[in-house]
Design brief:
Strand order of the largest sheet: 1-4-5
Structural class: alpha+beta
Order of helices and strands: EEEEEH
Strand content: 15-25%
Helix content: 10-25%
Distance between the termini: 17 Å
Length: 99
C-alpha cells in the first residue's frame, strides 16, 4: 500500500468536474464522469488506468487488487487465481487473500 492510502476509506464513485490524476506512464487523465476508485486523498484508479500515486514500486509492501467484471461474477474465481499466480511469480507475492 502506498503511503497515504487507506483501504478502510476506499470508495467507488463518478469522477467530479476538474478531477484528474497522472496515469501510470501516461498523462493527466480527465476523470469527470468516469467511475473511479478514491480514498481520502482523492481519486487513484479506474477501469482504464491507475494513478502514479498508488502504483506498485520496489517499496510496496501490500497490494489491494480489484478485479472489475462487466459480465457478472462468472469466472471471477479463475481470474483471482490467475492474479495470485502472477503476483507470486513476478512480484514475490505472499499470503494472497481473496474477499
Amino acid at each position: 500500500m502506498t503511503s497515504g492510502t487507506s483501504w478502510a476509506t476506499l470508495f467507488f464513485a463518478p469522477g467530479r468536474a476538474g478531477e484528474t490524476y497522472r496515469g501510470i506512464g501516461k498523462y493527466d487523465l480527465n476523470l469527470e464522469g468516469l467511475p473511479v476508485f478514491a480514498d481520502t486523498v482523492g481519486p487513484h484508479g479506474s477501469a482504464t488506468s491507475d494513478s502514479e500515486r498508488t502504483m506498485v514500486t520496489a517499496a510496496t509492501k501490500q497490494v489491494l487488487a480489484i478485479i472489475i467484471s462487466f459480465g457478472g461474477a462468472e469466472g471471477l474465481d479463475r481470474w483471482a487465481q490467475r492474479m495470485s499466480a502472477l503476483l507470486t511469480q513476478h512480484a514475490a507475492g505472499q499470503d494472497v487473500e481473496f474477499n
